[in-house]
Amino acid sequence: MDQDHLRNRIGIPLLMLVVLLAGIALVLFSVSRVLLTVSAGAAALLALLLAGFVLVVTSTLGQNRQVSARALGVALVVGLLGLTGAGVAAYQAGPRELQAEEHGSESEHGGESGSEGGGESSSEGGGESSSEGGGDSEGGGESSSEGGGESEEGSQSGGGELPEDALVWVAQDIEYAEAPQSAPAGEVTLALDNQGDIDHNVTIEELDVKVEAPAGEVTTQTLQVEPGTYRYYCSVPGHESSMSGEITFE
């Protein structure tokens, strides 16, 4: 009797509490993953629909006492499984990239500040820069001759054109639409043509190289590569699962 009493009054309530907390945590995780994966507008709409669905279900259950516990349990299990599946799929897809929204707001602020301060900077600094920098021709000649002749190996350069002999990765959305699979070893030029709306990169850890390109731009980098097979991927959070592969240098 003592064991039955202990199990019924303490064991079962504690087990129910643990199961309830685990279910709540699973629901919160799944919903958060889905909302972070879809677009901002779709996330707001889904949140409103989910809140409305919960209100309708609880109101219906409160007014209708004829719903059996078995039917309610089956409905909860099916709903939880569906929500969990959506959360797992969203977790594998990765969260949406927020950099595009940030870049958009920064560009707006940058345009406003440039229009407001452009005239002032040119009027105030124009005479000073010309008077100070015009006579210092010797220093300018030395810097151009010394710095222009030596190009640091592995430095990146951005531009709108792709070199003819470059190994080109084409980034679109959250994938590489095109990527090289093999190339001769030695001095190679890696190029990233970012045709998407968000920032991407090509990272090769074994070569300690990371070619980054903002949305709509092309970036190249030249370096020496030893023969071998190397893994590349996009290191932007959430992109590696769909943007990775291998390239062999012979």
Structure description:
The longest helix has 36 residues, at 2-37. The chain has a five-stranded mixed beta sheet with strand order 1-8-5-2-3, with no helix packed on it. It is 54% helix and 22% strand. The chain contains five helices and ten strands, in the order H-H-H-H-H-E-E-E-E-E-E-E-E-E-E. 14% of the residues are buried. It folds into two domains: 2-93, no CATH class; 158-249, Immunoglobulin-like, CATH 2.60.40.
Summed up, what is this model?
The protein is an alpha+beta fold and 250 residues long.
N-to-C order of helices and strands: HHHHHEEEEEEEEEE
Number of domains: 2
What does the average pLDDT come to? 75
Total beta strand runs: 10
Number of helices: 5
- Structural class per helix/strand content? alpha+beta
Widest sheet: strand ordering: 1-8-5-2-3
Q: Termini separation (Å)?
A: 78 Å
General shape: elongated
Give helix % range: 40-55%
Strand content: 15-25%
